[in-house]
UniProtKB/TrEMBL annotation, chains A, B:
InterPro entries referenced in this protein's UniProt entry, alphabetically: NUDIX_hydrolase-like_dom_sf (IPR015797), NUDIX_hydrolase_dom (IPR000086), WH-like_DNA-bd_sf (IPR036388), WH_DNA-bd_sf (IPR036390), WHD_NrtR (IPR054105)
Keyword Chloroplast among UniProt keywords: no
Protein's name in the database: NUDIX hydrolase
Cross-referenced PANTHER family: ADP-RIBOSE PYROPHOSPHATASE, SLR1690 PROTEIN
One GO MF term attached to the UniProt entry: hydrolase activity
A Pfam family the protein falls into: WHD_NrtR
UniProt keyword Cytoplasm present: no
Domain Nudix hydrolase: 16-140
CDD domains: NUDIX_NadM_like
Species of the source: Limnovirga soli
Length: 231, 231
DNA sequence: TCAAAAGTGTTATAGTTACACCCATGA
DNA sequence: TCATGGGTGTAACTATAACACTTTTGA
């Protein structure tokens, strides 16, 4: 025990931060939540929501803490994506950062704090980001594109009740590609995770679509089996 | 610039290590390379190959360094998998570790150093591991199972020239499931990344199989397009 | 009555699964 | 000549892709 402590004390130590890439969906666009950087050096640039990791805090908790502190929400989807370690990525010296992705429903969350000009930016057009945050955003976006095709993450970005058009718009925005409407519907109905609420869209200047909910419970009970080699 | 440095100096600092999960394939089994732990506390337990991250070293380089130091190889497949941060994962105090997966061809690498009883262990049966290394191994194994179905990583574990039986044994071992031989062959021939060397197995007590090479160049030129929602 | 999006089905193609026999080799 | 694994094809099934018209609503 003593030698373990001694060994650890001999290690170089590095400051650790977490950066949350918080995706949202609004106006048929994938958005990401950013603030103005705290640093004078980056005062005109946009920054991911980050903070250093507290002592004795597991990094997942740090990420939830950042979310809570910045947005007031904590019941959201959150997953570790990748650790970034370029020695010069922070102008103040070496800082290692662990990127987390979070997806949150813009409608269900009016931002309470607007410190540092916190607001949503279009993922496709954002530039001028602080640190290596653009690289982090790009990796998280690629991660999201892949993940959303394997897991039903997308529903975290939508209102609880949504139309199939909204769902398809979300997929088209994230994957940046048009899809066939009939095949899209067929696919999702075949999965059988959509609950027909019996409700319809309102206030739309055209025939209202049915509203559905995602059946998280049924999905949780089902085990996805991986199969098929494909590359 | 000054305020940036000041800010960073105010952060808590954490020792960082990398741990390499080095997979190999031998005797139709997936193996992992382990050593006896350095720590007295874990003297009967097996440990992944790790080391602390040097100052000003990007973590990918730390992982390559660990590989080189422990095995003498550096032209191998290596990828970051996940960062582990439980505050009590190391008995000497908080240590954060970044897990990397490496795949290396056992035949092409006779271990030069055998310090700390370095040797290959069967992934399926290993237990009694130091720290949280069993958890790390499990996550890396799950990662490998998924990855190998999407990318041709497996070839890094085989001799340069291999028979289709060896290739199938590898997939069956990693995915832990039997596959149909005819369909397996059809699949790989259809991909068209196998080069027929014109050579045959030798010293086998049955009809010798053809030996193939993987066409890394052709694969590199091809871009995989992701398509299809599936969960 | 018009504009706009909802809703719906079929056909062709590609991929996946399941399955059995003959062949080449060394012992 | 035997044991062992190599090598091969087909048929049923499932998933995917392409494609156009009618319906409902609000303005």
């Amino acid at each position: 025990m003593k030698d373990a402590r001694k060994l650890v004390e001999s290690y170089p130590r590095v400051p650790i931060t977490v950066d949350c890439v918080i995706f949202g969906f609004d106006e048929n666009e994938l958005k990401v939540l950013l603030i103005r950087s705290d640093l004078e050096l980056f005062k005109d640039k946009w920054s991911l929501l980050g903070d250093f990791a507290d002592d004795n805090e597991i990094l997942d908790d740090s990420a939830y803490r950042v979310l809570r502190e910045r947005t007031g929400m904590d019941d959201v989807y959150l997953e570790q994506v990748k650790t970034f370690s370029k020695p010069n990525r922070h102008p103040g010296g070496r800082v290692l950062t662990v990127a987390y992705c979070s997806l949150l429903n813009i409608e269900h969350h009016q931002l309470k704090k607007m410190d540092n000009e916190l607001h949503w930016h279009s993922v496709k057009t954002i530039k001028d980001m602080a640190f290596d945050h653009h690289e982090i955003l790009n990796e998280c976006y690629a991660w999201l594109q892949k993940r959303i095709q394997e897991h039903p993450l997308g529903f975290n970005l939508l209102p609880e009740k949504f139309s199939l058009r909204e769902l398809q718009n979300l997929y088209e925005a994230i994957l940046d590609r048009k899809m066939d409407r009939r095949n899209f519907r067929k696919k999702f109905f075949a999965m059988d995770f959509l609950i027909d609420t019996g409700l319809y869209e309102d206030d739309v200047p055209h025939r209202p679509g049915k509203l559905y909910q995602f059946d998280f419970k049924k999905y949780g009970d089902t085990k996805k089996k991986w199969s098929g080699i494909d590359f």
